[in-house]
């Protein structure tokens, strides 16, 4: 795993339904996922009957026993409301500062963290448990606004079995996608609507410098497909995904091969992704939301993250599933862009990307 300082410099979507990998759906569909209605206890005087509402992305998945552990420990019920991808989630939260649709939000990552912070949509809180590792991934200058929960790496994935069955050689680097034979075999995600898409755009900006726009022109000109989000790309179009599509190259995560046999990640194409939990300003249950932040850093949740959402926990000394590090390789090199640089340039980079790909 990269060092602490390296990650902070590099940082500024996988995975649901693990019959395959969880979705990073982009459509802004809000649904109540799990509602536990047993044993209620009061938190704040303004609480809504001892309930804590967590807004999260479509990829959120933890075992029911772990979710129910929050009720057992605190007496509070937990309502989970899923809302699209991390980018959609950040936008939803940023548009409602002081009038939130829930009490806490989980799943905003380092590529979008600046939006709710600058919008004033988050309440200050520093969990006492963060000293065990989470604080090493804090957003610089805003450690009290978002608390790190997990980390992973967005990378291109290869269906090795597809290439082997055709006696073809797969790409060795993300740079190889400029070749039409590889470009036409690739499905990527739109950085305007997908957090993995944003991460890969940042990979190209950080690794290629002034040549990144030409790279995208050549990749798209060679026949690469760009879709709205991870769910469509991986589970529908990727040849090794649930839908058994016709694209053997897809944008996903370095950890995805741990769930999908005969696939691998191009480890020179990666960008680090850290996911956070924060308390929404204007929450009616601030006390309950703080307890939820603490619970997300607990051993119960941290140890469940690898097999539930195929990400690494941020807390130190959390035991990983047997063989998991070997199947979910950690890149030795990743594209590096400071958070302030991402926040300052994101919109202009998106405009330049649209020009480059003709969207």
From TrEMBL:
One GO cellular component term of this record is: outer membrane-bounded periplasmic space
Q: Which GO terms describe its molecular function?
A: thiamine binding; thiamine pyrophosphate binding
Task: Write down the InterPro entries for this protein, in alphabetical order.
Answer: ThiB-like
PANTHER family for this protein: ABC TRANSPORTER SUBSTRATE-BINDING PROTEIN, THIAMINE-BINDING PERIPLASMIC PROTEIN-RELATED
- Which example biological process does GO assign this protein? thiamine transport
Keywords (alphabetical) are:
Signal
Q: Which domain of life is it from?
A: Bacteria
Query: What is the recorded name of this protein?
Result: ABC transporter substrate-binding protein
Q: Name one Pfam family in it.
A: SBP_bac_6
Q: What is the lineage of its organism?
A: Bacteria, Bacillati, Actinomycetota, Actinomycetes, Mycobacteriales
């Amino acid at each position: 795993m990269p060092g602490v300082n390296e990650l902070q410099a590099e940082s500024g979507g996988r995975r649901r339904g693990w019959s395959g990998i969880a979705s990073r759906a982009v459509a802004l569909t809000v649904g109540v996922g799990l509602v536990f209605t047993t044993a209620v206890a009061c938190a704040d005087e303004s609480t809504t009957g001892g309930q804590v509402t967590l807004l999260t992305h479509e990829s959120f998945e933890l075992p029911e026993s772990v979710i129910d552990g929050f009720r057992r420990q605190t007496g509070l019920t937990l309502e989970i409301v899923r809302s699209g991808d991390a980018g959609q989630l950040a936008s939803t939260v940023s548009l409602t500062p002081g009038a939130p649709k829930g009490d806490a939000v989980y799943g905003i990552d380092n590529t979008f963290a600046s939006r709710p912070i600058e919008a004033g949509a988050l309440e200050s809180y520093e969990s006492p448990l963060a000293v065990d590792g989470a604080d090493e991934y804090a957003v610089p200058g805003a450690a009290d606004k978002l608390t790190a929960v997990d980390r992973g790496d967005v990378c291109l994935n290869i269906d090795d079995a597809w290439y082997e069955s055709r006696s073809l050689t797969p790409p060795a680097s993300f740079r190889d996608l400029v070749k039409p034979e590889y470009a036409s075999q690739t499905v990527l995600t739109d950085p305007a609507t997908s957090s993995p898409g944003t991460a890969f755009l940042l990979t190209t900006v950080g690794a290629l410098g002034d040549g990144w726009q030409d790279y995208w022109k050549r990749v798209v000109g060679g026949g690469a497909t760009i879709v709205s989000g991870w769910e469509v790309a991986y589970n529908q179009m990727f040849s090794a995904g649930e839908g058994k599509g016709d694209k053997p190259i897809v944008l996903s995560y370095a950890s995805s091969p741990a769930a999908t046999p005969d696939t691998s990640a191009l480890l020179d194409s990666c960008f680090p992704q850290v996911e956070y939990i924060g308390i929404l300003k204007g929450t009616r249950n601030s006390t309950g939301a703080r307890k939820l932040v603490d619970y997300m850093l607990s051993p119960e949740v941290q140890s469940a993250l690898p097999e539930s959402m195929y990400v690494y926990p941020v807390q130190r000394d959390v035991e990983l599933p047997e063989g998991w590090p070997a199947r979910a390789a950690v890149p030795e090199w990743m594209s590096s862009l400071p958070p302030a640089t991402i926040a300052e340039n994101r919109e202009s980079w998106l405009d330049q990307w649209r020009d480059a790909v003709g969207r």
